[in-house]
Design goal:
alpha/beta, Spore Coat Polysaccharide Biosynthesis Protein SpsA, Chain A, globular
């Protein structure tokens, strides 16, 4: 099974608030947090682990009632995305049913379930899989991380680099999704 892993722990300093709490002005899609969870669920991940940090007390209630969602709080979230990624992978490690993790970021509001489904279809569910969405040839998220890579990624995930260093040293399948989304992260209102 590919388990969804949503990183939503950052303070969103440039945004002026934690991105887990951001809503679009028209609120059409609801909070970015719940929208991102639905993207993973609808894209083919039967369960999602959400990593929260800044604003966790306000964000966690937004997830109540969503089936298959587990919350993990990253105690070291302020040190960067790497700490959140490591916390999420650590939470998934004891689960024998999780062969891979589909890592998604809360601040990618135009990424849809179709992107997740395409990456999943191209990469499969194997424990050795490494794949990521690309947008007009530029690597982005979501990123599929097979279980065989989790410990190495967790060790190398520091600051805001996440899995970047680990992935740069390996062959990663790029799955073009530029026809589905821009993959651009949103840092400002």
């Amino acid at each position: 099974m590919v388990h969804g892993l949503l990183l939503a722990a950052g303070a969103g300093r440039r945004m002026g608030m934690p991105k887990a709490l951001v809503r679009d002005p028209d609120d059409a899609g609801g909070p970015w947090l719940t929208r991102s969870v639905r993207v993973l669920l609808d894209g083919g991940c039967p369960e999602v682990t959400v990593v929260l940090g800044a604003g966790a007390d306000e964000a966690e209630p937004l997830l109540e009632g969503l089936p298959g969602v587990t919350v993990v709080r990253s105690t070291d979230w302020a040190s960067g995305m790497g700490a959140s990624l490591a916390a999420g992978l650590e939470a998934l490690a004891p689960r024998d049913d999780a062969g891979a993790a589909m890592v998604h970021l809360v601040d990618l509001p135009d990424v849809t379930a179709a992107v997740v489904a395409r990456v999943l279809a191209a990469a499969g569910e194997g424990a050795a899989a490494l794949a990521r969405a690309s947008y007009d040839g530029v690597p982005g998220h979501p990123v599929l991380l097979g279980r065989d890579h989790w410990s190495g990624i967790a060790r190398s995930a520091v600051g805001d680099r996440g899995a970047r260093t680990y992935l740069a040293a390996r062959e990663v399948a790029l799955v073009e999704c530029g026809d589905l989304a821009t993959g651009a992260d949103v840092d400002r209102r």
